[in-house]
Amino acid sequence: MRGNDVLANVVASQTALHEAFGGVVPEQASREHLNVIDQVCQQALATAGVSLAEIDAVAATYGPGLVGALLVGLNYARALAWSRDIPFIPIHHLAGHIAAATSQAPFLCLIASGGHTSLFDVPAWGDYLELGKSRDDAAGEAFDKVARLLGLGYPGGPALSRLATEGEASAYAFTPPLRQQTGFDFSFSGLKTAVATLLRNQPDANPADVAASFEATVVTSLIHVTTRALEKTGRTRLVVAGGVAANRLLRERLEALSAELGIDVSVPALELTTDNGAMIALAAQHHVATAHTPDARTPDARTPNTPDALTIDAAPYLPLQPVKPT
Ligand code: ATP
Ligand code: FE
């Protein structure tokens, strides 16, 4: 990045590798990261037309995620920063997803990705108050699992969504999750089981109809809970981020919601929805611009290479909200 401009966004996809196993094998994923990380960085520099000597800060995510893969990126990035004596900025993975959609707080934020489905009220950049989250599967995880039930391969979300365009969303009336709740939680594993039961009982059910009905149930749930959270918080800006923000039906329904409620809705550009490096750079840029500490347990992003930044641990589980001192 230069200023607010993304000069290059090189993504090394591991889809082919994971497809063979129907999902991510953690050890394989981290080995593959190690194989390609230097090449990806060289390619990004070449695409951007920037030399290593011109880089004045390096950012990487330190969690949450698979620890082996996190360690590869974190260690590469801080070694680079240390060797050049430039700042290293550790970034929360979900802060990256959010930064792909907006830099302007305040807003209500729905993150719907492979590992998370959460609603946050964000009064200021870097200040995240969780209102609710999935009690079981994440939305993207449900897409992937149902896609697998339908024999659509990995990753399932985009394939299932494509198949759904050929089906009838009203063909199967799946029970909407958590209809009675007064909170802002999500749940998708009951729906996944309902699809599995349906496919077992009706083996000749039309897969496109099943896909369309499933997708509509997930999207309706995301929209309903989010709408209630908008009412509760009174926010007039909504940000939706994470891989599922690429979903065509969700984007359509968000546009309708924006018109209906007169609110501003931001989603990332399609190429920034699923994991990518630019979103981490964008988050780092926002943190530096707003002089905000990325996280209560991370060092001040403005201070170059504090011992904390350079020794920070990769964190497989890491809530987005800072832990408040007790
Ligand atoms: P997390 O960000 O929670 O750690 P992750 O990084 O694995 O998880 P992302 O890269 O944000 O997840 O998103 C990947 C998920 O998005 C996958 O589950 C994928 O199926 C889903 N996804 C991608 N495109 C679509 C789509 N068009 N429709 C539905 N789901 C989609
Ligand atoms: Fe992600």
Précis, in short:
The protein is an alpha/beta fold and 326 residues long. The chain has eleven helices and seven strands. It has helices at 15-19, 26-48, 67-84, 93-99, 139-149, 156-164, 189-201, 207-233, 248-261, 277-289, 307-311; strands at residues 58-63, 88-92, 107-112, 117-124, 127-133, 237-241, 264-266.
Write a structural description:
- This protein is α/β, with parallel strands linked by helices and 326 residues long.
- It folds into two domains: 15-97 and 276-311, Nucleotidyltransferase, domain 5, CATH 3.30.420; 104-272, Nucleotidyltransferase, domain 5, CATH 3.30.420.
- Helix content is 44%, strand content 12%.
- It contains eleven helices and seven strands.
- The protein has helices spanning 15-19, 26-48, 67-84, 93-99, 139-149, 156-164, 189-201, 207-233, 248-261, 277-289, 307-311, and strands at residues 58-63, 88-92, 107-112, 117-124, 127-133, 237-241, 264-266.
- It has a five-stranded mixed sheet, sandwiched between helices.
- It starts with 14 loop residues before the first helix and ends in a 15-residue tail after the last helix.
- Bound molecules: adenosine-5'-triphosphate and fe (iii) ion (FE).
- Residues 93, 97, 113, 275 line the site of fe (iii) ion.
- Fe (iii) ion binds at residues 93, 97, 113, 275.
